[in-house]
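Issue 218. Parser rejects a valid record. Input:
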Amino acid sequence: MTVFGRVGRGRRFVGKGCFRMVRRPPESRRKKKSAAAVPQQAARPAPDTLQVLHWPAPVLKQVARPVKEIDPWVQQVIDRMIALMTEHEGVGLAAPQVGLPLRLFIMSPTGKPEDARVIINPVITEQRGEEEKEEGCLSLPEIRAQITRAVQLKLTGLDQHGRPIAETLEGFPARIVQHENDHLDGILILDRMSTLARMGLRRKIKALEQAAKDAEGAA
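Output the parser choked on:
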């Protein structure tokens, strides 16, 4: 059996009283390797190229990071999200649904773009009551399920101009907030529906998975 162990700088014991010199890579090479190991921040995509992603897109299962600055790019993203929500006849849309892992969502209980609100870095507290109602999701087309949500909650965060928000919501607006906030934590209605409901939707779920594979193969 050969035993390896360090004996001194640049030398390695190789068993049976033998030593051999071990070359260390130049300092510049070591630094380059370490730098390469650090992940680089992804480039910001052009807002007008954003589209609604369907499950099982990986970003839909990620926990989004806080928005640090509400700059012109973020404002353009908001405008694009409102347009996409309206186009797809939704009442809410979260940034991860367009491929951006940011804690930001829009909501419009009427579905009208003029009623859209922007919530940045939301925090939900003081939830009260429970109610089960049917929900759908733009990232899960043709999939609907009964989901239990709080009836009332307190919402804090920022609007699109960076102004603080602090209000109490109930009923349908509260449900939208909970649904969209789930997206920021990588949670979908698939995770909230009953096992029986998910089993009943397995064909539609499989169809989404297959569509994603087909799209990947065609790319």
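Fixed in the parser; the record now loads. Residues 1-41 have pLDDT under 50 and may be disordered.
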